[in-house]
Amino acid sequence: MRTIRVVDYLGTPCLLAPEKGETLAAELKIELQAQNHIQVDFSGYEFLSSAFLNHAFGQLCIDLNWDTKTFRQRVLITNMEEDDLEDLELAIDNAQTRRGLILRGENPDQYYSSRLPT
After folding, report:
1. Which structural domain, as residue segments, surrounds residue 100?
2. Does any domain span residue 118?
3. What tens digit of pLDDT does each residue of 2-43 get?
4. Is residue 75 part of a domain?
5. How far, in Å, CA of 43 to CA of 7, rounded?
6. Cβ-count burial of 78 within 10 angstroms (0-12 exposed, 13-18 middle, 19+ buried)?
């Protein structure tokens, strides 16, 4: 199993920008094509945002059409603080909702924008 050290790979302990999450997701997709499992090591990070998690892991689940169980079987997350692990779970849960909308043929952005109060 290959290990990706996030801080080393992205070159920063501040994991805030959605673009950084997209960069990580792209690398994870490449690695997961070559092997069945991957370890994602968060050693040394200082800050983490939900936007980063949504773009790194939520979008990964949507793009690969993974449910939560498949994510947990294929991706091992290590050295992440407990509060941040809860945010990761939320990102994956939200991705499952979006994935469900997509599978029903709905555009998630349109779905949510039509239900927001004006």
Report:
1. 2-113
2. no
3. 999 999 999 999 999 999 999 999 999 999 988 889 999 999
4. yes
5. 7
6. exposed
